[in-house]
Amino acid sequence: MVIAGAGAVGRSIAGELLENGHEVLLIDNAPEAVAVERVPEAEWLLADACEIATLDEAALERCQVVIAASGDDKVNLVVSLLAKTEYGVPRVVARVNNPKNEWLFNDAWGVDVAVSTPRLMSALVEEAVSVGDLVRLLRFSQGEASLVELTLPQGAALVGTRVGEVAWPQDTALVTIIRGVKVLIPDPDDALAAGDELLFVAAPAREAQLQALLSPRPPKEGGKNTG
């Protein structure tokens, strides 16, 4: 795996990947950023990641993943485009520094997954305080899908329903149920419970359907006659 950008973000990612047994090469053109002693298990390259010669030296054609993690959106877009179009890297992940530029980070620029730190932080805050509202946590550029979360509220129509009995919207997959401190792999026989945090991969066009499906039951009509 190659990481373009050896700042705090790039080094942190490298450390996590190395702990998981991956081979990692860090590229940066700033001598002060090339701090080999901070991530000694990684390979390092002092060079401009936007240059073809650098990417040739990094043997990008053998990489499974390229992570454009610099603090400059222009650099991250160029690295992503070169990685995908010139070297056919299967998976390209790019950091979005300015949320205003997020619309550029798509498959046209070779980006498979765009990670916007400000947007992710706001989504996580929203997720922490929202019950019954669908929260988009992450957008996957390739395939036009998003990772979305909803905490199932009391009174939702699906409370007590088995996962396998739910007619989920098309292009939607329930991937995880978080129940208290437990992370559950959804089983068709699992019954949904109020307070469950449900994580889905869903097409953006299906999010409204998913929200409606998981919403509380509408109040019953009628009631006490006050006439």
Automatic annotation (TrEMBL):
Keywords: Ion transport, Transport
Superkingdom of the organism of origin: Bacteria
Pfam families: TrkA_C, TrkA_N
PROSITE patterns: RCK_C, RCK_N
Limits of the RCK N-terminal domain: 1-115
Entry keyword annotation includes RNA-binding: no
Limits of the RCK C-terminal domain: 135-216
Any one GO molecular function term: monoatomic cation transmembrane transporter activity
BP term (GO), one: potassium ion transport
Protein name, UniProt field: TrkA-N domain-containing protein
Species of the source: Streptomyces xiamenensis
